Amino acid sequence: MLWPLLLFITLNALLSRPSSCSLLQRFEDLKRNDFDFVVIGGGTAGNTVANRLTENPNHHVLVLEAGGSNANVLVSIVPDFCARTLGSAIDWNYTAQTGPVMNRVVELPRGFVLGGTSSMNCMVYTRGTREDWDRYAHVTNDAGWSWDNIQPYVRKNERFTPPADGHDTTGEFDPSVHGFDGINSVTLSGFRHQIDTRVIQASKAMGNDSEFRFVLDMNSGEHLGIGFGQSTVLNGSRSSSATSYLGPQFINRPNLHVLLHAHVTRILSEETAHNGLTFTGVELSQDSGKTLHTVTASKEVILSAGSIATPQILMNSGIGDPNTLSNLGIRTLQRLPSVGRNLSEHLVFTLGWVVNANDTETEAIRNTTLAAEQLKQWNETRTGPLVDAPGLDLGWVRLPKNASIFEKFTDPSPGPNTAHIEIQFINFGGFVTDNPLADTIGVAPTLLSPISRGFVTLNTSNPFDHPFINLNYLDSEFDLFALREGARSARRFMAHPSFNGFLVSPIVNATTDDELDEFIKSNAGGACHPIGTAMMSPRGADWGVVDPDLKVKGVERLRVVDASILPFLPAGHTQASTYIIAERASDLIKASWS
Ligand SMILES: Cc1cc2nc3c(=O)[nH]c(=O)nc-3n(C[C@H](O)[C@H](O)[C@H](O)COP(=O)(O)OP(=O)(O)OC[C@H]3O[C@@H](n4cnc5c(N)ncnc54)[C@H](O)[C@@H]3O)c2cc1C
Ligand SMILES: *[C@@H]1O[C@H](CO)[C@@H](O)[C@H](O)[C@H]1NC(C)=O
Ligand SMILES: *[C@@H]1O[C@H](CO)[C@@H](O)[C@H](O)[C@H]1NC(C)=O
Ligand SMILES: *[C@@H]1O[C@H](CO)[C@@H](O)[C@H](O)[C@H]1NC(C)=O
Ligand SMILES: *[C@@H]1O[C@H](CO)[C@@H](O)[C@H](O)[C@H]1NC(C)=O
Ligand SMILES: *[C@@H]1O[C@H](CO)[C@@H](O)[C@H](O)[C@H]1NC(C)=O
Ligand SMILES: *[C@@H]1O[C@H](CO)[C@@H](O)[C@H](O)[C@H]1NC(C)=O
Ligand SMILES: *[C@@H]1O[C@H](CO)[C@@H](O)[C@H](O)[C@H]1NC(C)=O
Ligand SMILES: *[C@@H]1O[C@H](CO)[C@@H](O)[C@H](O)[C@H]1NC(C)=O
Ligand SMILES: *[C@@H]1O[C@H](CO)[C@@H](O)[C@H](O)[C@H]1NC(C)=O
Ligand SMILES: *[C@@H]1O[C@H](CO)[C@@H](O)[C@H](O)[C@H]1NC(C)=O
Question: How many other C-beta atoms lie within 10 A of the C-beta of residue 58?
Answer without folding.
Answer: 8
